[in-house]
Every structure is written in structure tokens, then in C-alpha cells.
Task: structure prediction
Amino acid sequence: MVRREPWLRPRVVLLDGRCPLCLRTGRILRALDVFDRLTFVDANDAVERVRYAPNATLDDVRREILVADDCGVYAGIAAFRAIARAIPLLWPLLPLLRAPGAGALSQRIYAFVARHRRLCAGM
Result:
């Protein structure tokens, strides 16, 4: 297996294609992804979901974003860290995402937004 630099590894972002906030997030990430490191798939498609995240259920994806690469599958804030590593324009956020205590705090914020995503989509 060839090891690539973390930002060079292609990643697959599994989004809930029926969620307006998820779709908007995907559009923003696609615009920031100038090196085309991310591929977006609708996790409602069971074939695609099993292909990239075989152990994930549809409920898992509706609860939090998933990102798959050749090293594994990441969920929630870990998925956003994987995305930030892939997009140079997001690299300035990495120290914040890795700061002590940031994981727990950001996971709580992420979980709140994910639970209320229908309301947040109207922001």
C-alpha cells in the first residue's frame, strides 16, 4: 500500500442527500476543494454507503457526517478534521480542531447542530 501525505489522500464524504443543511455544507466544501480531494456521495444510496462505510447505517449518517479514506471511516468532528486536512484553505482551522478540549466541545456543538439540522438549514 502506498502511503500518501494526509492532504493528498482522496476522501469520500457521505452526506444525507435529503438534508438541506448537509447539501449546503457539501456545496461549500466543494467550492473550497480547489484540488478536488473530496468526492461526495448521498448516503441514502445503500450501495454507495456500503461501498465506502460498510458498517454505517442510514441512521448513523443522518446523525453525523461520515468521511472515508484509505485509513478508515471518520464521523462527526473527526470527519471535519479529515476534511480540513484535505483542503488547504481549511488548514488554519486545524490547530483549533486539535486544541486540548476542542474535541469534546466541538463534538457537543456538532451534535447539537446535527440534532437540529432541519432548523439550522433555515439560517
